[in-house]
Amino acid sequence: MGNQSLEVIDQEKDLGVYITSDCKSSLQCAKASQKAMNSLRVIRRTFKYIDKESFATLYKTYIRPHLEYYIQAWSPTLKKDIITLEKVQRRATKLVPELRNLSYDERLEELNLYSLEQRRIRGDLIETFKILTGLENTDKDRFF
Fold first, then answer.
1. 8 Å CB contact between 29 and 83
2. Could you give the C-alpha distances from 126 to 5, 116, 130, in angstroms and in order?
3. What pTM does this model have?
């Protein structure tokens, strides 16, 4: 058994999540955004007209899951990554013709959606509440 050196790997994909050697989520954000944009393009080519109700179903079924898949493991912290993900939702909300001329925040309100960043914060708050109130099988003293 001679000396063997280990191969250096800069990134690894595990359970559909890209892990990089610097532990930043930029690659995962880019890949998630790319997949979601591909789904968005398919929807745009497939449907001639999309109303609010149809949009909600299509968006929540085919686009948002790419943007939030296993988000607990790779939640973006860099502003550029947050913008990358939010850009997809910003573009998607323009699929509804009567909302195109509204601002992004107005489109979200009309569609009864939250920004992806707000959804992540809300999820963190819910999880914190569950840990603190004993609804999770986790020792709260370990975290707080």
1. no
2. 45, 15, 6
3. 0.80
Specify the residue for token string 């943007």: 67
* Residue 82 contacts residue 76 (beta carbons within 8 Å): yes
Domain boundaries in the chain?
11-113, 115-144
Q: Is 112 exposed, middle or buried (0-12, 13-18, 19+ CB in 10 A)?
A: exposed
**Both structure tokens of 119:** 């959804």
pLDDT tens profile 19-49: 787 878 888 899 999 999 999 999 999 999 9
Q: CA–CA separation, 60 vs 92, rounded Å?
A: 11
Question: Which residue, among 57, 117, 112, has the nearest Cα to 83 in the 3D structure?
Answer: 117
With the C-alpha atoms ordered 115, 91, 77, 65, is the resulting torsion angle positive or negative? positive
Chain-centre distance of CA 10, in angstroms? 23
